[in-house]
């Protein structure tokens, strides 16, 4: 069973952050939420491991 990797695992952090912020440029709040939802669903599909996805959802939930 795979587990969620929460250790830093990418380069270009600042560039990625800027791309995420840019994703919302010019969007209404509703459009912005739709873009986030599409991004999350695309990444979940890419991960494809139910246990890892469940762990990520658990860790992301408000405490």
From TrEMBL:
Listed InterPro entries: DUF2783
The organism of origin for this protein: Paracoccus homiensis
Protein name (Swiss-Prot/TrEMBL): DUF2783 domain-containing protein
Highest rank taxon of the organism: Bacteria
A Pfam family per the record: DUF2783
């Amino acid at each position: 069973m795979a587990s969620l990797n929460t250790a830093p695992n990418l380069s270009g952090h600042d560039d990625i952050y800027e791309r995420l912020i840019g994703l919302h440029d010019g969007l209404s709040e509703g459009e912005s939420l739709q873009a986030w939802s599409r991004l999350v669903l695309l990444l979940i599909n890419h991960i494809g491991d139910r246990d890892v996805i469940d762990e990520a959802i658990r860790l992301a939930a408000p405490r």
